[in-house]
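Data availability (excerpt). The following record was deposited with the supplementary files.
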Amino acid sequence: MVYVSVAVVAACIAYLANQLGRLIGKRKMSVLHLRPRHTSILITTFTGVTIALITLTVFAALSEPVRVFIVGMDKLRTEEGQLRQKVEVLRRTLAEGTFIWRIDEPIVHMTIPGGLGYDRTRAAITSLLTEANARAILRTNKIASSKGDPLLSTDEIIIDYDAEQLEELINSINSSPNIMGLRVLASQNCLYREKAPVRFESWQVRKVFSAGEIVAQMEIKTKQSVMLELMKFIEETRKKAIDKGIRPIDGELGGELDSDDFGRLQEEIGRQKSKFEIVAIANRDLYETSSLDVRFEIRSSGEVKN
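Predicted structure:
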């Protein structure tokens, strides 16, 4: 349709210019002391240019693409340059490795009571930021190790946060009468070996398990493959805690068993004479942002009360 319109306009311009030239030639008009023939050529050319400009102006007024093409080329070139820069950043990111953190990805979290006082609240949040920084360094060094790059020092500070937001957060938690959840999240995609901007998020958390409450239990009918059964139970405990509302970070809940705990449980299992159960019990009140602080006990079947 555009080509047809341009062709029609061009034909009209050529016809009008030709007719005007012939009219001027017949009347033998003279402009600027030019000979009639040269006057005809000058006026014909001027008329053609004028008609073309008027036509282009009308098209620009009626068509957004034409208007952008005429008056928006500089803007388009600027936008093209910005897009090229973004593409270059993405290309460099892919070349250097994955993001350390992706936007809004949780880095660390904690449960903190409100009303602790300004100094204690600030100290608790500062310790959480220290943990976030340690995690960021750990992720960076993991990539650096795979690339053969120099490792970052554990003393280096690579997280970046808004000091005003931190002060507002401290005052908000300190003035709250509730148990609060606090987490540190990536405020943008954080690139390898670059600063990691973070933001804070706090909310009133609900209690998921009370102190002494059973988190999970499983009956064991044989003492064969004890280690396998223990591993299955630990995974079941983790799953039930997540299903009830405890939030993991990097897929982890904390509170994992150490080698001494495994040894103790194996000894207790070895002393059992009949069917028994493994029970996971909350050591304290556990909230959405608490680590999975539980103890594991071996009890005779029927001894456990839900």
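Summary of structural features: The longest strand covers residues 196-204.
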